[in-house]
Each structure stands twice: as structure tokens, then as C-alpha cells.
């Protein structure tokens, strides 16, 4: 244990493990990572980017010879999930950017994941092939058809080993169900259905059926001029397949029970924190807009992220959050500029660790923050190439708000607002995190003693 | 500068083009005269100026957000709600009338001044707390933006600027109707602002385009004007004609995309 860094998060010290992506100064927009997700075992890590590609990393087996290299993640499969499209009716482009990836639980050798852009959800099957059939009767080894008159004997083809090949095939395409932009997908705990949510509607799908979906939430007003609130995120409860939540641009969370009615426009629970009238400004509503909502693994709590805070809500208490954590409150006095340059509309995500004891979210300047719910301590870390020596321990960072700036602190005015960490993921059972910084994916692990 | 709203990945532009430094100092000086209450129009000229500036900025944002890709509805709704809030407060203050009578006929970008007062909560305003100015909000901005501002309409001092930029962009396209429609929309918005009688926000938008938020119809309506300009025979909707018009539209939109990219990336 190195003194001076403090004992944070149950004595966890985070170390750099790997970084994926190029170091070029000019970032190709297509390479910007737009979503990151571990699968249920943590063996696989998927990323989606603005160019519509999905890259899956697989953790290598830990070796006794090199215990320090605790299971590095290497590229397992890369495929083009979505292509740019053109909506001829509206004369608009449909971006191929992958908004979300969600894994299905694994039941056999193949893995399944859902990936979505603004309009279309796809189910991909990722499978390995390490054997090849040889000895066909009707075609030779190159695949060319043989002349049937030349075939005099029959044989049974045999499977022979080959180099491992990982192939991704689209198994289902769920299209034409969303007028507005899809912001969330969530797999139900029944593993038979999933939901997709856009700005105004939420649809329920069965994995086997692509030409139909059930609309379960619709908040589109009859007169669009009366529109003042949109859906920003939605998720199924991890255990109760009838329950889901969705968040809104007005900072509210609604919990719905699908047993109550087919169309869940009337919520079962409504979570909203009363506004502090002394803190009111023209930007109050914008910064209260929830950008992400996540159930805890236990299913007892819901975490929400708005522009300046992360809040943990107890499902049994609707009138205020249980816990509120300030992510970057020093930005409160800068809201005008952030509104002007559109940063105020950035949608940060938030994640739980496997035991629901620590929560993590991103900020600007490639900073990301972790909050320990038990000790109430927090830490700010940075994803940067400078801290990228193997197993280098990440040093906590600090933003100074005013007055004298200590050495190693960074002043608010020096923050780089183009370097934003919107997407992070936490391994389901270990202290391994994946942090997306523009076009680079950083993987950090806790220190091995 | 305003075009950066179209390509949201790089949203930065020179704050100096928004904030004339002298004017900002005036605002802070003006603050010292404030008694710390919002009552009385003449007591807080700088607050009104900043609020007006925020309103103007919001309206421009709303106008510029629908281009090639469908606009982000959440962002549009949040901006529209902000506009509504400002307008309601201005109506309550009575400043809506006052500004109308004062206006010179054009909403000027001079009035897009430092809006740091607006960032404060009402409690802080009551305490008269000083907020650090924006001159050093991000020094890196200025380095980045010397390149941008040469391309974009730096130091714009009138609402002509966004219009001119728009007209430059549209001029490169074949359709003159586009420019006409766009300028018309902006004109309508600002004209509505300067009307003698306060309108509700719905009226504000209704003069522009009733179906603004209805993505099902709005963009079809807007784009149909595009199509009218240079895609013939759309009325008949026969398939060969439609294909032609679609491809024409698509190529024009690609051109526009290309132009926007050049303007923003340089």
C-alpha cells in the first residue's frame, strides 16, 4: 500500500491496464466510441462506435507465468452492425452510430447481443468456428463444383480442426417501430422479451418476432406544440420481469408495472425531487434532465444521472433520492457558457459496481468519478495517455475552484470540454472498469498485491 | 459560430464573439447599482440584457438544429422550454413591452452579452455574489477558435450575421427557395419578438411553422419546399419523377453536408 494516496474504496487502488485505439491527434469521427458494455460474466467487452461498428474484446485466460497480467482484453470480433441509411420520406439521414449494446445471457457456446442505432435494433450472434468439414462429394476443397459424371464413390465428410474463426451474424432485425430516436434498449429478466425506448414511446419486443412490437408507453401529445417532456432512458428491473422504469427530461422517474395494463401510461410510482426554489435559474430544468437510469444489481435501488449530480433512489421512497453525489458542481457557475456551446446537453452515463457499493460516472477533461456509497468517499481519476504505463497507479485528480491553485490541481478554466467521458462500464464481479474517452478505450484494474 | 450547433460533436466557438469585453465590464459595473431585487425594470438593466441575450441565443439554436440529420428532440424541447420560461418571466415583469418599444427593429448580437448573472441561482443574486467573469473561462478556447472565427461569422454585430451565413450556405445550393424560407423563418421569429403585443410561445412558433415539433410532418413540410425548388413534378408522385426528385434532393443534401463540413472543420 503506497502511503499518500489515501485509502479509498475499501483500499482499492486503480491501475492502468490497457488502452485501445489510435493516438492520432485528428480523430476520425467514425471511431468515436458511443457505447461500452461488459457481458454477464465479464469475459467479453463490447464497444460500439459512431461508424456503426461493434468491436468485442475477450479476456484472455490468466496464466500462472504472468500473474501480473491479469487477463488482458484482446480483440475477439469486429463487425459492421449498422450502416448509414437515408429516410426518403423525410429526406433525412439516419445515423449509423451505435447508441446502445446490451448482452443476452449466455446459454450455449454462442453469444448474443442487441445493438441499436437511432431507428433499428439488431440481434447479433457471435460464434466460434474451429472445425471445418472436409471431403464433400459434390464440390472440391476450393468449393468448385465437381463434374457429376466424374464422381464414382461416396464418402462422409469429416470435421477437421482449423484456425479459430469468430463470426458475427445478424439473427434478427427489429425495424420500423420507432418514429423518434432510440435512446435505450433493455433485456428483460425473462430473456424472452426486451424493450426499446425512443423520445416519446417505449416498445416491447419478443426476440423471435421482428414484424410486431407492443407499445407500452406513449407520451406523445395530441398536439406536438404541447410537447414539453421526452423520455431519456429506460430499463427493466433485473429480477421482476413486469417492472421497468423510464426517466424524463424533467428529471422524473416513473416505475411501471406491465401487469396493471397493456399501455403503461399511468405509472405505478413517480420519483421526483422537489426543486429547491433558492437554486432556481433558467437552466434548472436543463440540468435536471436525466441522461441515464440504472437499476442496482440487487434491484432495490435506481441510480440516475443528471448534468451535475448522480442520485440513488430507493424504490420505496418516491419523494426524494436517498443519496445525491456531486459530480462537478464547479460547473454550476458556468452553465451559460455550457449552454451556449451545447455541452449542457451532453448525456453522461452511470454504472454500479458488482456489489452496488460503488458508483461511477464520467466528467470532462477525461476525468471520471467514483463514489463509495458506504464510506461516502469519492475520487476523481483521469483517462489519459500520460498515465498509461503498464500497471501505473492512477493518481487522484482535483479541480480547484478558485483562489490558490495547488500544484497538481487543475483549474476549472483549464478543463478541456471536448474530452468528455460519457460511457463507462464496470465488470460484473471484479474491479475492472472500461472507460471510453472519445476514440480510445481505457481498461483499468485494481492493483494486484 | 452558430453552425457548430449543426455538427454537435464540436460545439465550441469563440466566447469572445459572444461577449464584447467592454460591455461585460459595463454589466458588472451595472450590477453594483443593483439593490439585489428583481423588482423594477430600471434597477437591473444588465439582468434584462442578459436574459434577452439568452432568449436570442436559444431561438437561434432552435432554428439551426434541423438540417440534415433529424434534430435531437430532447435538446429542442429543453431549449424551447427555456424560451418559454424567459418569455413568461418577461411578460410578468412587463419588460416584454419595454423591450419592444426600445428595439431598433433588429435584434442585435451585441446583446448576446455575458450571461453570468443568469447562471446564478436567485439566492446568489439576492446576495449580490460576484461570479468570475468569462474572459478566462477556457483559455484553450481562444487558441482553438482563432481558426474557427475566421471561417465563421466572428464579431457578428447584427442579426444579419446568422442570416448571411445561412444565405451563404444556401446560395451554394441550387434552391433559392431554401434561403427564402430560412430567412423568412428567422424573420418571423424575430419579428414576433418585436411585436407590440406579447404573444404566447405557441404563437411565437406558430408563425414560423405550426408543426415545428411534429417530426412526422415538419421536416416533410420544410423539405418539400426544398423539393419544390429544383425537383420537378413532385406533385404527380409518379415513381420515375419521385426517384429523380429524391436523388436530386439527396445530392443537394450531400453537397450541403460537404459545405457544412468544410465550414465547421476549417
List keywords for this structure.
heterodimer; A: 449 residues; mainly beta; 4-stranded antiparallel sheet; 2 helices; 32 strands; 2% helix; disordered N terminus; B: mainly alpha; 62% helix; WD40_rpt (chain A); protein phosphatase regulator activity (chain A); WD40/YVTN_repeat-like_dom_sf (chain A); Serine/threonine-protein phosphatase 2A 55 kDa regulatory subunit B (chain A); PP2A_PR55 (chain A)
Counted beta strands of chain B:
0
Give the end-to-end Cα distance of chain B, rounded to a whole number of Å.
Answer: 12 Å
Radius of gyration of chain B: 20 Å
Number of helices of chain A: 2
Total E-strand runs of chain A: 32
Average pLDDT rating of chain B = 50
Q: The biggest beta sheet of chain B, please?
A: none
Fraction of helical residues of chain A: under 10%
Distance between the termini of chain A: 8 Å
Number of contiguous helices of chain B: 13
Which structural class do you get from the secondary structure elements of chain A?
mainly beta
Most residues in contact, chain pair and counts:
A-B, 54 and 64 residues
Concise overview:
Chain A is mostly beta strands and 449 residues long. Chain A is built from two helices and 32 strands.
Description:
- Chain A: This is Serine/threonine-protein phosphatase 2A 55 kDa regulatory subunit B.
- Chain A: Belongs to the phosphatase 2A regulatory subunit B family.
- Chain A: Keywords: Repeat, WD repeat.
- Chain A: One of its GO terms (cellular component) is protein phosphatase type 2A complex.
- The complex is a heterodimer of chains A (449) and B (266).
- Chain A has helices at 284-288, 335-340; strands spanning 14-20, 33-38, 44-49, 53-59, 73-80, 85-87, 92-94, 100-103, 111-116, 121-134, 158-174, 182-187, 193-198, 201-206, 214-218, 231-236, 243-248, 253-257, 269-271, 292-295, 301-305, 309-314, 323-326, 350-352, 358-362, 367-372, 378-382, 398-400, 409-411, 423-426, 432-437, 440-446.
- Chain A is an all-beta fold and 449 residues long.
- In chain A, a hairpin with a 3-residue loop joins strand 3 (44-49) and strand 4 (53-59).
- Chain B is mainly α.
- Chain B is built from 13 helices and no strands.
- Chain B has helices at 15-18, 21-32, 45-64, 73-93, 95-102, 116-119, 122-127, 139-151, 160-171, 176-193, 201-206, 218-230, 239-265.
- The termini of chain B are close together.
- In chain B, 35% of the residues are buried.
- Chains A and B meet through strand 7 and helix 2 of A and helix 3, helix 4, helix 6, helix 11 and helix 12 of B.
Amino acid at each position: 500500500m503506497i502511503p499518500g494516496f489515501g485509502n479509498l474504496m475499501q483500499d482499492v487502488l486503480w491501475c492502468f491496464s490497457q488502452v485501445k485505439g489510435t493516438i492520432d491527434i485528428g480523430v476520425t469521427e467514425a471511431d468515436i466510441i458511443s457505447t461500452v458494455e461488459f457481458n454477464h460474466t465479464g469475459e467479453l467487452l463490447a464497444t460500439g462506435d459512431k461508424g456503426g461498428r461493434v468491436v468485442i474484446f475477450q479476456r484472455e485466460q490468466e496464466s500462472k507465468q504472468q500473474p501480473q497480467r491479469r487477463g488482458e482484453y484482446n480483440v475477439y470480433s469486429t463487425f459492421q452492425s449498422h450502416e448509414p441509411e437515408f429516410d426518403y420520406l423525410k429526406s433525412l439521414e439516419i445515423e449509423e452510430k451505435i447508441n446502445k449494446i446490451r448482452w443476452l445471457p449466455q446459454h450455449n457456446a454462442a453469444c448474443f447481443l442487441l445493438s441499436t442505432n437511432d431507428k433499428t435494433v439488431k440481434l447479433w450472434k457471435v460464434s466460434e468456428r474451429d472445425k471445418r468439414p472436409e471431403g464433400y462429394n459434390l464440390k472440391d476443397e476450393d468449393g468448385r463444383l465437381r463434374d457429376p459424371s466424374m464422381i464414382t464413390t461416396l464418402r462422409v465428410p469429416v470435421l477437421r480442426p482449423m484456425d479459430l474463426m469468430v463470426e458475427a451474424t445478424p439473427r434478427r432485425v427489429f425495424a420500423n417501430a420507432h418514429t423518434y430516436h432510440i435512446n435505450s434498449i433493455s433485456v428483460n429478466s425473462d430473456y424472452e422479451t426486451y424493450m426499446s425506448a425512443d423520445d416519446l414511446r417505449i416498445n416491447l419486443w419478443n426476440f423471435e418476432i421482428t414484424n410486431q412490437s407492443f407499445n407500452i408507453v406513449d407520451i406523445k401529445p395530441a398536439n406536438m406544440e404541447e410537447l414539453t417532456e421526452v423520455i431519456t432512458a429506460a430499463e427493466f428491473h433485473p429480477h421482476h420481469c413486469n417492472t421497468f422504469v423510464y426517466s424524463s427530461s424533467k428529471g422524473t422517474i416513473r416505475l411501471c408495472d406491465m401487469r396493471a395494463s397493456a399501455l403503461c401510461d399511468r405509472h405505478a410510482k413517480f420519483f421526483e425531487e422537489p426543486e429547491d426554489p433558492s437554486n432556481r435559474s433558467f437552466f434548472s430544468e436543463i440540468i435536471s434532465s436525466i441522461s441515464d437510469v440504472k437499476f442496482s444489481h440487487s434491484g432495490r435501488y435506481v441510480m440516475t444521472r443528471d448534468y451535475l449530480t448522480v442520485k440513488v433512489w430507493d424504490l420505496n421512497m418516491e419523494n426524494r433520492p436517498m443519496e445525491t453525489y456531486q459530480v462537478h458542481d464547479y460547473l454550476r457557475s458556468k452553465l451559460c457558457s455550457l449552454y451556449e456551446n451545447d455541452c449542457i446537453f451532453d448525456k453522461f452515463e452511470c454504472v454500479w459496481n458488482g456489489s452496488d457499493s460503488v458508483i461511477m460516472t464520467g466528467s470532462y477533461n477525461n476525468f471520471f468519478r467514483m463514489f463509495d456509497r458506504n464510506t461516502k468517499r469519492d475520487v476523481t481519476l483521469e483517462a489519459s495517455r500520460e498515465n498509461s504505463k503498464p500497471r501505473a497507479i492512477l493518481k487522484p485528480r482535483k479541480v480547484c475552484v478558485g483562489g490558490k491553485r495547488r500544484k497538481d490541481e487543475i483549474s476549472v478554466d483549464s478543463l478541456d470540454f471536448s474530452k468528455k467521458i460519457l460511457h463507462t462500464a464496470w465488470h460484473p464481479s471484479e474491479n475492472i472498469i472500461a472507460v471510453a474517452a472519445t476514440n480510445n478505450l481505457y481498461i483499468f484494474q485494481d492493483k494486484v498485491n | 459560430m452558430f453552425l457548430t450547433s449543426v455538427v454537435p460533436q464540436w460545439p465550441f466557438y469563440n466566447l469572445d464573439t459572444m461577449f464584447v469585453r467592454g460591455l461585460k465590464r459595463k454589466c458588472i459595473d451595472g450590477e453594483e447599482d443593483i439593490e439585489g431585487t428583481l423588482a423594477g425594470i430600471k434597477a437591473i438593466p444588465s439582468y434584462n440584457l442578459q436574459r434577452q441575450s439568452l432568449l436570442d441565443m436559444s431561438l437561434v439554436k432552435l432554428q439551426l438544429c434541423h438540417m440534415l440529420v433529424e434534430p435531437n428532440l430532447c435538446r429542442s424541447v429543453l431549449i424551447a422550454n427555456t424560451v418559454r420560461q424567459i418569455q413568461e418571466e418577461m411578460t410578468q415583469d412587463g419588460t416584454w413591452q419595454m423591450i419592444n418599444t426600445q428595439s431598433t427593429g433588429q435584434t442585435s448580437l451585441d446583446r448576446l452579452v455575458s450571461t453570468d448573472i443568469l447562471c446564478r441561482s436567485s439566492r446568489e443574486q439576492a446576495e449580490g455574489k460576484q461570479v468570475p467573469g468569462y474572459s478566462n473561462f477556457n483559455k484553450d478556447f481562444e487558441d482553438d477558435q482563432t481558426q474557427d472565427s475566421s471561417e465563421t461569422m466572428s464579431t457578428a454585430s447584427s442579426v444579419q450575421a446568422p442570416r448571411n451565413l445561412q444565405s451563404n450556405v444556401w446560395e451554394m445550393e441550387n434552391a433559392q427557395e431554401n434561403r427564402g424560407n430560412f430567412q423568412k423563418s428567422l424573420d418571423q421569429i424575430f419579428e414576433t419578438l418585436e411585436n407590440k403585443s406579447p404573444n404566447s410561445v405557441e404563437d411565437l412558433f406558430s408563425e414560423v411553422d405550426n408543426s415545428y415539433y411534429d417530426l412526422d410532418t415538419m421536416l416533410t413540410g420544410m423539405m418539400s419546399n426544398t423539393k419544390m425548388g429544383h425537383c420537378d413534378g413532385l406533385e404527380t408522385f409518379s415513381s420515375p419523377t419521385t426517384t429523380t426528385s429524391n436523388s436530386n434532393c439527396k445530392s443537394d443534401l450531400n453537397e450541403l453536408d460537404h459545405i457544412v463540413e468544410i465550414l465547421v472543420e476549417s
